[in-house]
Amino acid sequence: MKKSVNQLIFAAGVLAVWEALALAKVWPPYLFPTPQGVAQSLYEGFKDHSLWIGIGVSLRRVVIGYAISVVLGILLGMVLASNKFLEDTLGRVILSLQSLPSACWVPIALLWFGLSETAIIFVTITGSLLAVTQSTKAGFDNVPRILSMAGRNLGAKGPQMFWHVLLPASLPYLLDGLRQGWAFACRSLITGEMIYISLGLGQLLMTGRDLNDINLVVAVMVLIALLGYIVDGIVFRKLDASIRNKWGMAATASS
Amino acid sequence: MTNYVIDLFNRSIGGSRAPLESVELPGPLNAGKKAFSDAAFLQPCPPARKESISLCGVFRSYANPRGSFTPALQNIDLEIEQGEFVCIVGPSGCGKSTLLHLIAGLDRPTSGEITVDGSPVNGPGTDRILLFQELGLFPWLTVRQNVEFGLKMDGVSKTERRDRARVFLRMVHLSHFEDHYIHQLSGGMKQRVALARSLALRPKILLMDEPFAALDAQTRDMLHDELERIWKETSPTIVFVTHNVREAVRLGDRVLLMSFRPGRIKTQFQINLNRPRHVEDSDVAYLSKEILGQLREEIDRSFNAEYSREEKR
User: All domains of chain B, ordered by start, with CATH?
Assistant: First the structure.
């Protein structure tokens, strides 16, 4: 209760300072958005459906890209965790690739897939795949030996060992990676959508720039941040809380 | 020299008091350090008997950081009867846990033979359940799901699993906690969950690795009683490792004393005291004192070994 009151007070404060700065006209209005302007852009955007379409198209892409990243990332992470040779070779390559921002992958995506849906999804995947891979690997590496021994001791074999011991034991790590992967996927998606007329939220950002409409730009940014936050809150924070609850870990500040 | 002292000591306590039978192990065991390198003395194992755990000439050594091998167990010959309660005491680092892991099939001997009911041990099996010192309970499962785990792996149907888990949870007095998660339990309760989880598979052999070491005295006393009762009801063979001599005498039909690295079975004591016993019984205290005397020697040896190693650094 106290938390939400604090959050409300904080939001009101931010809006007040923002409004004050806008009224003071420290910066010219075409460089500095106003709260009303942003609200106006959001209202109009939703009214003429361009924002709804943007959200729909972008969500579809990010879900597809993220789903592929999760499946591939978990498989890849498992392989890396179970094979020393691949860990020393492929693992290092993956580690070095992780420092590339997804914008680096745009030229390759364009050359391989042209101005297409596939190119955008490819860029999305480059953002999240490696994060999921790394955390899966870390998760499996960090399964306490005692748990896997206990599993074997109680008769778990092969796939049973994987499904009933290794996977649940690495879940806290895995969830961190999935969460991070989601955030990375969203970022990369926007990068990808700036490539061409793609109807997504990234495209709307570029439209705002082209029309010199700072209010639209900020409105879309707010929308993207909000979407990421909502998904995180609906899916990941709940999962995280339930795992922490079962395992008896300390609750995080956010939950 | 040490062997000579041990000999004297054994002889001196041999005739002291009726219930204590100190059995000096014959032959190669006393051949000392030479034994490890010399393969010639290894006798062929006798044909394994049914209805028992039998270890014959078991060695286990581990590679150490200096590039050589540290022997953990050396030439273990051991025969444990079906339904027997055997306790193993020894200084830390003497290979007690290794011995249990070998019988459980979670580790393999460097050489030698381990048979259970006449067939050689090749990996873990649910007829031999090891109760780990660190328990290894699954934090993502409830108490009952933990107890059901082995049954689930075995393909037992859901309703039967549940019924069997409840029987064993009642046995360890945890019926009211079946839907709790592990972190919500006290140390003694966790210990009992682990016990119920092991018992649920109805193992013929229960291997227990210092299971009660981390508990307070009252809880331990209570669990001793419970374990003894469960042992009488379900009559598994129990191999119980501990560093607490009184606990060993309280529980065991037989107490094996292991020597410091390399671990060998130095002496064994038949405990012919009537059950139920209690750790505070004078007979238990008396026998414990005898065994403790010998254990002290080994502990001194282990300290000396650690010291001399530190000086070399």
Answer: 2-25+50-127+203-312 (3.40.50.300), 139-201 (no CATH)
